[in-house]
Amino acid sequence: MKKEIVTKNLKDSMNRYAQKLDERLRNKDYDGVITISKTYLESAIDYFSDFLLEDVDNPIKKKQLPDKFHYLKKFVRLYPEKETNDKMKAILESLSKIVGSLHFVANELGDRHSSLLLPKPYEAKFIADLSKIFVEFLYERINFLYHRYPDSTSNYIYKKIIRILEKGGNRNLSRGDLLKLEGIKNLFSTFENDSYILNILKNKFIRDYEIESFRENDIFFSAMRLFFDSLTKKDVRNVFQKCRDNDQTFPLWGHLISFLFAVKKLKPSDFWDKEMENFIGKVSFKKTIGDEIKKFKYMFDVG
User: Fold this and answer.
1) Integer Cα distance of 286 and 269 in angstroms
2) 1 in a domain, yes or no?
3) Nearest to residue 255, comparing CAs of 266, 241, 244?
4) Residues near 99 by Cβ (< 8 Å), separated by ≥ 6?
């Protein structure tokens, strides 16, 4: 079933927060209004990030509000330096400042913090309205992107990448050489390295691409080299689970072991776990391990 950003749970959550804000305003609980305003925005950003990343190990949930927004905005293309319209650029530059200021004000005036400063009624209402508008803006922005790249569009790009990787010996190229392929460069430049659509494509390869031959093994792992920088801890775990019992991904011709070496050497240490270590340990032949290390170094341009 197609995943929709417009869900009953999200709408219910947005309505609940709006009602809480209005209720606190009526009760003149102005510091409570400011606290809920910040919580509302944080919760929305967490939800949107979960939706975009499809990752239970969401890396931003323990971050502060400004950091959450900084992480999210690359997925919804809110970078002012890429905006040519000067007026829109000024607005986009202001967004991060607004989020940072809301975070600061909530820390100073919210009811979770002892403070001699009491927010004035108009200040509390302004911040409440600001959080509602901001959440609505993010919601509509993601909806716009989601419908800009419907399944038909993402499927077309996905199949085009597969066709490029199938051609000649492209599937066996190193990561650096893959990124130099004219077709790949054209695709990536067309979408300006758009994190939103690239994330959709990455997830589609991991979830949907079937590996029933050594050729398909080559294509799958060449795609993983293309998307390697954006792979999350959950992505790595899903690749491992997808391939660990597949004869087509195991040495000598499979690429799972060399992929795991890349994860161990190039990704943060928490991407690696004991199960992966034990799995590699079962490949007992020293020559096989040596060949896999050479393969990893070649495929990921590691000297």
Assistant:
1) 24
2) no
3) 244
4) 41, 65, 66, 69, 134
Domain region containing 260: 151-299
Q: Which pTM was predicted? A: 0.64
Q: CB under 8 Å to 264, separation ≥6 — which residues?
A: 271, 272, 276
pLDDT tens sequence across 13-48: 778 888 888 898 999 998 888 888 888 888 888 877
Q: What share of the chain is helix, strand, coil (3-state, %, to 5)?
A: 75, 0, 25
Helix (H, G, I), strand (E, B) or coil at 244: coil
Tokens representing residue 15 in the block: 């309505």
Q: Quote the distance between the C-alpha of residue 73 and its chain's center.
A: 10
Count CB neighbours of 178 within 10 A: 20
Number of structural domains found in the chain: 2
Read off the tokens for 294: 């050479």
Instruction: Cis check for the bond before 181: say yes or no (omega within 30 of 0).
Output: no
Q: What is the pLDDT of residues 212-250, one digit of tens each?
A: 999 999 999 999 999 998 898 989 999 999 999 999 998
End residue of a domain, out of 130, 148, 166: 148
